[in-house]
Specification:
Shape: globular
Pfam family, one: zf-AD
Radius of gyration: 33 Å
Subcellular location: Nucleus
Helix content: 40-55%
Mean pLDDT: 74
Keywords: DNA-binding, Metal-binding, Nucleus, Repeat, Zinc, Zinc-finger
Family: Belongs to the snail C2H2-type zinc-finger protein family.
Low-confidence stretches: 1-11, 57-62, 111-173, 175-208, 566-570
Strand order of the largest sheet: 7-6-5-8-9
Protein name: Zinc finger protein 879 isoform X18
Largest sheet: 5 strands, mixed
Number of helices: 19
Structural class: alpha+beta
């Protein structure tokens, strides 16, 4: 493909490989694709021995170090092809002359062994920095993800073929057989035995240290250091850990539920003066999930000195009380909350929320590190991003529970409706599953006698029997997230509702029927109208079985012909 030099206009958003203009990725930033780390400037250097530099003279495109997706794809193919050729060349040389290839490989491995080991360790540490919990789900739909290891990145870092160690052993065996055959033809057996013994001793000396060097590669990753920081801060401070169940705080030690934060803090002070630190982290998968902690009354447990944040108290515990294991260069794997009885507010940005669940979903967004290249959703861990990509961008219609692939999305939705084992909501008492959260709550009330949940607004003390009216009330009255009509100042909970209302002022009718060309102001009005042109009618009279396209027509029919005053309910 020829470079687009004739069509390109200088600017800061151009691809440095084809000069096409757009919003692209930075060429020197670390990205992850299919579980592998990618830095495109390094790939260009390794594959083609090319480097991309900044312009020192300035100008509109002096800082452009971007690369577009087509060029990234071609670069990946080239890097993979180079690796394939190198592996094939090694295999060919080994088969052609195994003894010579063995000698060359032994020297190469001896010279590069230390360098390659360090590269593997650095890359493993880099990936461990990325292993973090969280999803930009604001609905927690991607929490079930697989914990994966660092193996793809290790292979990428070392650039040694997978089976090289096995091939070396095979070559050693072949070399020994060859030497044995040569020595059997010689007259003087004793010197050959000595030389053979020396060779054997030398080869054994080379092979023995290898396990020790493999042990040396085991390092404490940044992920483990962050987890250790959290454990020490939790043990020697009054950072109170908790989980969320429904709308209540759940004690991580005794699983008792609390609706008010001050009562929960009193419970922690009275009932859990001594505790097992590892118990608090049981629900954190392999230490990658952040532990939720309330730091409203943060103090050192040893000397009772108060602190405002975790970083300060971590430094205090390390320097004052001698816990040198705390590494302040790594993060403390905790999510911060300052909880009080008046309002649910974020400890980092002070934004208010209607419930504790909404606050937790928002707080997680402050710890996001990984962004989906396709839809822009963000996640705290690389595993959560992989799970999201597998579920949402694989090009397949896959059920997230049973992983059955369906040819169309309609068949998948039909499967989820009728397959009870794939329903998302489960009763914690009897294990029965439900298709919606509301049906689960109704089951708990009617079958297990649980008290019906009521929702109290902390800002105005109004009480609601269902969560949707409560959320709508909070959004319209107590938050800045409502949508106001520019013509009459009415507020709406969603932008779609506001747009549906706005056409009353503008008179717009953007939706057109393809059959009769009639125009409609709203999409739902057009969808309802299309039943007029459909052979199958949606509304049927229970008495005379006459069919109608619209509910209003059926209601008129009931009043006129069957003298029914009540309107039809679908």
């Amino acid at each position: 493909m020829a470079a687009k030099t004739s069509e390109w206009r200088p600017g800061p958003t151009v691809c440095r490989c084809c000069l096409s203009e757009g919003c692209y990725k930075d060429i020197s930033t670390e990205y992850f694709w299919m579980g592998k780390r990618e830095v495109y400037s390094e790939m260009l250097s390794d594959t083609f021995d090319l480097s991309i530099s900044y312009s020192k003279s300035g100008g509109p495109n002096s800082a452009s170090r971007l690369i577009c997706e087509p060029c990234i794809g071609r670069l990946r193919d080239a890097a993979e092809f180079k690796r394939q050729v190198q592996e094939c060349e090694k295999t060919f040389v080994q088969c052609l002359d195994p003894v010579t290839a063995l000698a060359d490989m032994q020297v190469t491995l001896e010279l590069e062994k230390e360098v390659k080991v360090e590269m593997v360790k650095e890359e493993k540490m880099r990936l461990s920095d990325d292993d973090d919990y969280g999803a930009h789900d604001y609905g927690d739909d991607d929490d079930d993800y697989d914990d994966l290891d660092d193996q793809p990145l290790t292979k990428l870092a070392s650039k040694i073929p997978k089976k090289e160690d096995v091939d070396v052993l095979d070559l050693l065996d072949n070399a020994k057989v060859t030497e044995k055959r040569k020595s059997s033809t010689k007259v003087k057996g004793q010197p050959s035995k000595k030389s053979k013994c020396k060779q054997t001793a030398g080869s054994s000396k080379q092979q023995k240290p290898e396990p020790k060097k493999k042990k040396a590669t085991v390092r404490v990753t940044n992920n483990q250091k962050s987890r250790r920081n959290a454990e020490l801060v939790l043990q020697y401070s009054t950072a109170y850990p908790f989980r969320v169940r429904g709308k209540d705080m759940l004690c991580v030690y005794c699983h008792e539920e609390f609706s008010e934060p001050n009562i929960y803090r009193n419970h922690m002070d009275e009932c859990h003066k001594t505790f097992t630190v590892s118990t608090a982290f049981i629900h954190c998968g392999r230490g990658k999930e952040f532990l939720k902690v309330d730091i409203t009354d943060l103090k050192c447990r040893i000397c009772s000195t108060p602190f405002e944040n975790l970083q300060d108290i971590a430094v205090h515990i390390r320097d004052t009380h001698g816990f040198s294991e705390i590494n302040t260069d790594c993060e403390i794997r905790m999510q911060l909350y300052r909880l009080n009885s008046e309002k649910w507010a974020c400890a980092l940005c002070n934004e208010k929320f209607a419930t504790l669940v909404q606050l937790c979903r928002h707080t997680t967004s402050h710890y996001h590190k990984y962004t989906c290249d396709v839809c822009g959703r963000m996640y705290v861990t690389i595993e959560a991003l992989r799970y999201h990509t597998r579920c949402s961008h694989s090009g397949k219609n896959v059920c997230r529970k049973c992983w059955t692939d369906f040819p169309t999305s309609e068949l998948k939705r039909e499967h989820v409706k009728i397959s009870k084992t794939c329903w998302n909501f489960c009763c914690i008492i009897c294990g029965e599953r439900f298709v919606s959260w509301e049906k689960k709550q109704k089951h708990l009330t009617e079958v297990h006698g649980r008290e019906k949940k009521m929702y109290r607004c902390r800002d105005c003390d109004k009480t609601f029997s269902a969560r949707k009216p409560f959320y709508k009330h909070y959004k319209l009255v107590h938050s800045d997230k409502s949508h106001k009509c520019p013509f009459c100042d009415f507020k709406f909970a969603s932008k779609k509702q506001m747009e549906d209302h706005r056409v009353c002022h503008t008179g717009e009718k953007p939706f057109r029927c393809d059959v009769c060309s009639k125009m409609f102001p709203r999409k739902k009005d057009l969808q309802q109208h299309l039943w007029v042109h459909s052979e199958r009618k949606q509304f049927v009279c229970d008495i005379c079985e006459k069919q109608f396209a619209q509910k209003s027509s059926l209601n008129g029919h009931m009043k006129s012909y069957h003298h029914e005053d009540s309107t039809f309910k679908n």
